[in-house]
Write a structure and sequence with these properties.
Length: 73
C-alpha cells in the first residue's frame, strides 16, 4: 500500500509525491492535473491520496485500499 500527496511545488506548479520518497512522481501545471495523477497512483497501489492546499494543510483525503473498518450497508 502506497500513499501519495499532491502538494504545491513552487513557481505555481504542483507535485505528486509518494510518501517517504525524496523525489516527486510528477510535476504539473495545475492542481487538478496533479490531483488526478495522485488519485490514479493511489488506486493502482491500493493506497490513499492526500490533497494539500497552498498552506500545506490537508484539504481532502481519499482511500483506495482495504479499509480496516469498511462501512456497512
Amino acid at each position: 500500500m502506497s500513499n501519495y500527496h499532491t502538494t504545491p511545488h513552487g513557481n505555481g506548479k504542483w507535485q505528486v509525491k509518494k510518501e517517504g520518497a525524496e523525489r516527486a512522481s510528477g510535476l504539473f501545471d495545475t492542481q487538478k492535473e496533479a490531483t488526478e495523477q495522485g488519485k490514479r497512483l493511489a488506486k493502482k497501489n491500493k493506497g490513499e491520496h492526500f490533497l494539500h492546499g497552498r498552506d500545506g494543510e490537508i484539504r481532502d483525503r481519499a482511500s483506495y485500499g482495504n479499509d480496516p473498518f469498511p462501512p456497512k450497508g
